[in-house]
Amino acid sequence: MELDELPNIGKTLAAKLENVGIFSVDNLLKTGSRKAFLKIKTQLNDG
Fold first, then answer.
1. Fewer CB in a 10 Å sphere around the end CB: N or C, the chain?
2. Rounded to whole angstroms, what are the CA distances from 29 to 3, 4, 25, 26, 38?
3. Can you say whether residue 41 is alpha, beta or left, with left for phi > 0 and alpha for psi between -120 and 50 degrees?
4. pLDDT over threshold 90, residue 30
């Protein structure tokens, strides 16, 4: 299953996850939603 096939994760969010090193559903589960969110937020703030 691809990231963008998960509920509430479209192509844009999947691309943001990939940009922070989360490439699979397994990666996302191991990282956790909170940590994944913080990684994306940090990357966006760093510009």
1. C
2. 11, 14, 6, 5, 15
3. alpha
4. yes
